[in-house]
Fold this sequence. Notes:
The protein is an alpha/beta fold and 156 residues long. It contains five helices and six strands, in the order ββββαβαααβα. Strands 1, 2, 3, 4, 5 and 6 form a six-stranded mixed β-sheet that branches. α1 (59-71) runs parallel beside α4 (116-126). The radius of gyration is 16 Å and the shape is flat. 29% of the residues are buried.
Amino acid sequence: MSETVGNNGAKMKEINIYLYSTIKGGKEKNGAYTYILETATSKGNATITKTEKVEDMTANKSVLCALIAAMKRIRQSSYLVIYTDCHYLVANTRDSLGKWSRNGWKTARGDEIKNPEQWKEIHQLLMPHSFEFIVGTSHSYYQWMKKETEAAAECM
Length: 156
């Protein structure tokens, strides 16, 4: 991790965001999510971790909520590297978010998008940042996050 040059030529702090949810599938369930924020400081790497229990959410919505919670902790324009196994988050952020915003948060067919409040908030939160996604479960925190989040979900 280091500083990166953003689109406007300014130096940006690099922040890694790791996301995990116990909820799987399209049905609403109870569960938990965990996020980790990680960045380099003059004293070494710093991390912030939070696990949150959630009720009556789909897997997709829980990951959107995890990203929102993590991004609300970021106080300056940064280069974000977002680690997730949620293809819904990645594909829609890359391919649809701008279109939805311009189209009144409707699909190309004119239907309301799923999870509109979360997508509107993610759109606003991402605006000052540059970002990329890394999709998968091969990062160094994955096993710890899975264990921590599943333990929290069991306490519901």
